[in-house]
Design brief:
This protein has one helix and no strands. By secondary structure, it is mostly helical.
Length: 54
């Protein structure tokens, strides 16, 4: 039998960096989703809004 290598373990500093990056990404994505969700009915209801899209 062969010995399997242990899975990599993150130290506390690296784990905090990863967690902080994930939280920051979620915080940056939330306002974008809110703005688009609020503006989408207005964009869709405008009859000539699709004419400027290529």
């Amino acid at each position: 039998m062969t010995a399997q290598a242990a899975p990599p373990v993150l130290d506390l500093r690296r784990r905090n960096i990863v967690l902080g990056t994930i939280i920051l990404g979620m915080l940056l994505a939330a306002p974008d989703r809110t703005i688009v969700g609020t503006a989408l009915p207005t964009i869709v209801s405008d009859p000539g809004s699709a004419s400027h899209l290529s």
